[in-house]
Every structure is written in C-alpha cells, then in structure tokens.
Amino acid sequence: MKPLRLVFGQRVRDLRREAGFKQDEFAEKCGFARSYMSRIETGGANPSLDAIEVLASALKVPVRELFPEA
Questions:
Q1: Residue 58: predicted pLDDT
Q2: Domain limits, the chain
C-alpha cells in the first residue's frame, strides 16, 4: 500500500494536468513556490489542511476529490 501523501500527490498532479496547467503555472495560481508544488506531487511534502483547501479551490473540485477512495 502506497503512503497517502504519495497517492494524494499523484491525484493532485493528475487533476492539474487535466485542468491544463503546467506545474509552475499552477503553483503560482495557488500562491506556492514551484518547488513546494513539486514536493506535494511527489509525496515529499505533507501539506496542511489550508494548503489542501487552496489546491481544491484552484482545481475547482471539492476537497474530497483530492483523496482516493479507501
């Protein structure tokens, strides 16, 4: 079983790509550094609840859409 951070990051990456954003564009839209966005997408960062809310808002999806089905 993959760690939740890794699965979450992959989901964010997939949704970002589906929305047509390059990583640096999306990071700017969220107000994050590109390096932080990269760490989120690769599972290297443990984003706060506030950051998760920002990601969901920028992707125009409910927060629950960022988490895989258990």
A1: 98
A2: 4-60
All residues at 6 or more sequence positions from 30 whose CB lies less than 8 Å from its CB, including other chains? 37, 51, 54, 55, 58
Quick one: CATH architecture of 4-60?
Orthogonal Bundle (1.10)
Half-sphere exposure of 50 (CA within 13 A, CB side): 2
- Tell me the whole-structure pTM to 2 decimals: 0.93
Largest CA distance in the chain: 32
